[in-house]
């Protein structure tokens, strides 16, 4: 059960980082 919560937290943080990186890249290229 504990591993499942940690896994979900990692998934959420990786998605957030991906969104932020996409925003930075789009700002730089435009």
Q: Mind explaining what this structure looks like?
A:
With 30 residues, the chain is mainly alpha-helical. The protein contains 1 helix and no strands. The chain has one helix at 2-29. The longest helix has 28 residues, at 2-29. The chain is rod-shaped. It starts with a helix and ends with a helix.
Helix count?
A: 1
**DSSP summary, beta strand count:** 0
Q: SSE order in H/E notation?
A: H
Largest sheet composition = none
- What is the end-to-end distance? 44 Å
Summarize this structure briefly.
The protein is an all-alpha fold. The chain is built from one helix and no strands.
Features:
30 residues; mainly alpha
What's the structural blueprint in terms of helices and strands?
Elements: H1 2-29
């Amino acid at each position: 059960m504990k591993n499942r919560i940690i896994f979900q937290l990692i998934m959420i943080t990786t998605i957030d980082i991906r969104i932020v990186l996409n925003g930075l890249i789009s700002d730089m290229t435009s």
